[in-house]
Description:
Layout: H1 2-22, H2 29-41, H3 48-58, E1 77-78, E2 88-94, E3 101-104, E4 108-111, E5 117-119, E6 129-136, E7 141-146, E8 149-151, E9 156-166, H4 193-201, H5 205-217, E10 219-227, E11 238-246, E12 249-254, H6 256-260, H7 267-276, E13 282-284, H8 293-309, E14 315-320, H9 333-339, H10 351-368, E15 373-378, H11 385-390, H12 394-405, E16 412-417, H13 431-445, E17 452-455, E18 458-459, H14 470-479, E19 487-494, H15 506-522, E20 526-531, H16 554-566, E21 570-574, E22 580-586, E23 588-596, E24 599-607, E25 614-617
Parallel strand pairs: 2-9, 10-25, 12-13, 12-20, 14-15, 15-16, 16-17, 17-19, 18-19, 19-20
Antiparallel strand pairs: 1-9, 2-5, 3-4, 3-6, 6-8, 7-9, 10-22, 11-21, 11-23, 23-24
Helix pairs in contact: 1-2, 5-15, 10-12, 12-13, 14-15, 15-16
Amino acid sequence: MKNMRILSRLIISILLCNALFACGGGSSKPDIEQEVEQEQDENANETETETETETETEGEGEGEGEGEGTGESEGGSEKETDNGLYSVSGQVHGLYQQSLKLSVNDDELIEINNAGDFSFSTTYLDQQDILVSVSTQPDNLNCNVINATTTIDKSHVTDVIVQCSEQLKQCDKTTAEATNSLDLSGNNITGIEAIVEDVECGQQQWRKDANQRIAQHRKTAGKITLLDKNGDIVKNAKVHIELQQHQFKFGGIVQAKMWDGSEGNFSDLYRQTYLGFNFTKAGLQNGLKYKLRSGFEEITARLIPWLKSYNIPVRGHTLIWPGWGNMESTISADDAQRFGISAGSPSELSNADLKTYVDSIIKEWAAKWDVEEWDVANEVRGKFDVQENLGYQEEAHWFKLAKQHVKNPNAILFLNENRVVSDNALGDVTDKMEVFESDMLSILDNDGPLEALGFQSRFGTLVDGELLDAETMYKRLEYFDQYNLPIAATEFEMKGGAENLGIATEYERALMTERVMSVYFSKENVTDILVWTFFDKGDGKERHIVELDGSPNLRGKTWLYMVKKHWHTERHDWFNRSGELHFDGFKGTYTATVSIDGVDEEIMFEWIDASSGINLQLSNYTN
């Protein structure tokens, strides 16, 4: 590199010498050779003549790129100079300190002035390759050079941009940034600091494996290109990109009567808190069960449109729960007349009337509600009174009926079951898992359109005196890979300490909440996790994640931290001189706020498969 600078100065001296000879000047060739020899002997100091030359060329592009917007002048360069020498300059944006040092071609090292401007004193010849890099940066900053490489093309380089942001080490994220008990940002980690520290710093093999799978399956990386309203490339524009919604569904089941205000006098608080969790899928605990329609149908008719008004899709639970104790105790006279069957208890019907009754409620209920998916059958492993009377082939028949009559033709049909992954029996594959598998295969073998598996994922009962470990959870999920079906955690919750064999302490319930979320989120074919009990029901079971005053308990804080902070992507950066930005983030829906000349424009975009890159087009800006 030193030899390049020597060669550059030799050429410059020859040019100056020729100019002087042409004018009759007094310099001579021996003087030039003497100057080169002197330069080769110097380690630090330069001749007075060279310093004057560099000082004159240094200011040629100084101050370019200040403020917001495109950090350039006409392509990031200025016109050709008279002496054939070109400078490199730019500006630092974001957070920075004077201890930040930059280098060009690993040679000259400079500090940054208070305004963030920088200009290298070294000048360069046409067609010379340039690389600007960060040589020294404070421990608390992460600085990235945009337009770091270029080849001089008869112009000054003025569009080098250095973006500096706060660099938090993973293990520094264990202090609560908010202490308000009603805070729903994920910043209030009071009481779960040790859980957060383990999330960020833990070195357990299961956690390393889960993090690797999450990076592989839940994130994507690629190129984003910025275009103006005419489709032309926009260079050197500032951008703030932030994840708004995961592709993965972190959902919450709605307690319909609390939402309505007919149970508890806090409807507004309930709705505000529910929306504050940013759930991306919903369901109803009891509002879509046929047997409970008299108390819920009117509420449900208002609740589903409310959820959809916030772009929250709704799942249906359930079309048939085929145990006598889970069906209405007495068939109404109206239903008996409409269906053409006898009134009374379902258990007392003839087989012909029982089949008519079950088929009728599945067809009617599936056709009535516009939902994204249905639990067609619920808990058939232990609820089989109807099947014992009509035959187990009816399970596949129920799925066929649902597919024929669903209001939403794209609705996905689930078989929903308890204690699959959460079974407290020892072993990677348990008896309950195998019975569920047998039920699933019977439906598929009889051509039932079973399209997804619902694992309720209600944890609490200890396994051999311990909380279920992460490795066993993952192996139980993995067991069903052979069937290539999506899986959802449809009723996710922790059983409380007041219940028989429930998890004794709130801290342990929070610990288990994080463990289950991390394992499920890392499994490629798991699509959803839905919280079953949102607000405290006052039944002493301690299954909720939010208290009646709207404050998250430790489980609620853990959920918020994982979804809104730990698994979150936010980036302040710049598009380069080619209008491109390489971006790596969680799959989902993003906003990109582009700033040009002090004017912001927000673009919403999907970031699902970035292998081919995407274009973002501004609607108001033209180059």
